[in-house]
Specification:
Distance between the termini: 38 Å
CATH superfamily of the largest domain: Mur-like, catalytic domain
Shape: globular
CATH topology of the largest domain: UDP-N-acetylmuramoyl-L-alanine:D-glutamate ligase
Number of strands: 17
Mean pLDDT: 94
Strand content: 15-25%
Largest sheet: 8 strands, mixed
Number of helices: 16
Low-confidence stretches: none
Structural class: alpha/beta
Radius of gyration: 21 Å
Number of domains: 2
């Protein structure tokens, strides 16, 4: 028999969800069908009222840029008149930010009530309902999108692909962003192995969109496509996009897909954003009427930026770039973006990372745009001691918290880069007065 549960606040609902297994706080484990039982999750989700296929979806996986592609695509689809759902992770400030309807985070009351309905649905005994924090959030997102009758839901994979809770989605559009080595202790020790895992979001009967990949990653993706007897849209070829101008405020892009979308001024930083825009527009071209596409693309991308992803903020005339990137590929992209948009200027970098990351390679990749490192840690059990980071970099200083590190950095430079972790990014944004997205 179900029981009635009520939470007085969104914070109380978050505390309830954190009482379940939360793999976002675990640095080393292996995904198996015992730790991530998709068949059981699908069964429980259906029992809770989910109807597979009731909402059209776009499933986005990969290593880097998947969150950015989701944000860009949702903006374009919404500008084209569609009622959109967006599910991304991790959050920067509050869990409810992960679930968005029509561009707005799920309200605090709606989040608390939604979690309460899920808690009430299953009896209070181990294994009876959803088993992990992420399964609960995914269930809440899918049920919310269904209840809100959205036209399309843009869904970011949490981790990997094959056994991620989001992979209960039926065949539809699926995007693979660039795949590189990350979460090796969970997904595999080689790029090829990781690519095979992530490519499992591609399904027979769906449509595959693939961003530029390394040769090794492509091999894993093509293996999946052969098994499905399917082809893929190569997004950079379907919608060539290039950066025409780059300055401190962002980029001007020339976007050329099914139509010439012309020059679009954005708040995006980095040459790699051209590939992200190509992917978002390539998918949007299959979902929006041709007559609305041009204006939707232009309006959706105009002045766009993505919270926590090379996110340009200002404080008293000083620029702070906040980026949650945490692997060497992301660090390299950030370094190239800083060099392109702020030529001749090297930043003071505030860096905090999780214990399981490739610290040395990350710092080496970030190094060319940094004149001084200040190492710190987020308020998380996963955070590595900042002294470890300093030893890997062989330079820099240590601060006990993100706020102290930022205060020191802003005293020393007009350009500050915050990087290494989405938890650090969230704390930095809060310090700068941005407490929501």
């Amino acid at each position: 028999m179900s029981r009635r549960v009520r939470f007085a606040s969104a914070r109380g609902a978050e505390a309830y969800l954190l009482g379940f297994v939360n793999y976002e706080l675990v640095t080393r484990y292996r995904q198996t069908t015992r730790t991530h039982d998709l068949a059981l999750f699908r069964k429980r989700l259906t029992e809770a009222g989910w109807k597979p296929g009731a909402v059209a979806s776009v499933h986005v996986g990969g290593t880097n840029a998947k969150g950015t592609v989701c944000w860009l695509l949702e903006r374009i689809l919404r500008a084209g008149g569609l009622r959109t759902g967006l599910y991304v992770s991790p959050h920067l400030h509050a869990m409810r930010e992960r679930i968005r309807i029509g561009g707005r985070s799920l309200g605090a009351r709606a989040f608390a009530d939604g979690v309460a309905r899920i808690a009430s649905r299953f009896p209070e005994k181990p294994g009876a309902g959803f088993r992990t924090t992420f399964e609960h959030l995914t269930a809440l997102a899918f049920l919310t999108f269904q209840e809100a009758d959205v036209d399309v839901a843009v869904v970011e994979v949490g981790l990997g692909g094959r056994l991620d809770a989001t992979n209960v989605l039926p065949p539809g559009a699926a995007v693979l962003t660039p795949i590189s080595l990350d979460h090796a202790d969970v997904l595999g020790r080689s790029v090829a192995e990781i690519a095979r895992d992530k490519a499992r979001i591609l399904k027979r009967g769906g449509r595959a969109f693939v961003m530029p990949q390394s040769r090794t990653a492509w091999a894993g993706i093509e293996e999946r496509l052969r098994n499905l007897r399917a082809g893929a849209v190569r997004t950079s070829e379907a919608c060539p996009t290039r950066v025409v101008e780059a300055g401190p405020a962002g980029s001007v892009l020339h976007v050329l897909g099914q139509a010439d979308y012309g020059l679009v001024s954005t708040g995006l930083l980095g040459e790699h954003q051209a590939d992200n825009v190509s992917a978002a527009v390539s998918v949007a071209e299959t979902l929006l009427p041709r007559e609305t596409l041009r204006e939707a693309v232009r309006r959706g991308l105009r002045e766009v930026s993505v919270p926590g992803r090379l996110d340009l903020l200002e404080l008293e005339g000083k620029r702070v770039i906040v980026d949650g990137g945490h692997n060497p590929a992301a660090a390299g992209g950030a370094a190239r973006a800083m060099t392109r948009h702020f030529p001749g200027t090297r930043a003071v970098a505030v860096v905090g990372m999780a214990r399981d990351k490739d610290h040395r390679s990350f710092l080496e990749a970030l190094g060319p745009c940094v004149r001084e490192f200040i190492f710190t840690r987020a308020e998380s059990p996963r955070a590595v001691d900042p002294g470890v980071l300093r030893s890997k970099a062989a330079r820099g200083s240590v601060a006990p918290s993100v706020s102290v590190a930022l205060e020191r950095a802003l005293d020393r430079a007009d350009l500050v880069l915050v990087s290494g972790s989405f938890l650090v990014a969230g704390e930095a944004r809060a310090f700068l007065g941005r407490r929501s997205v």
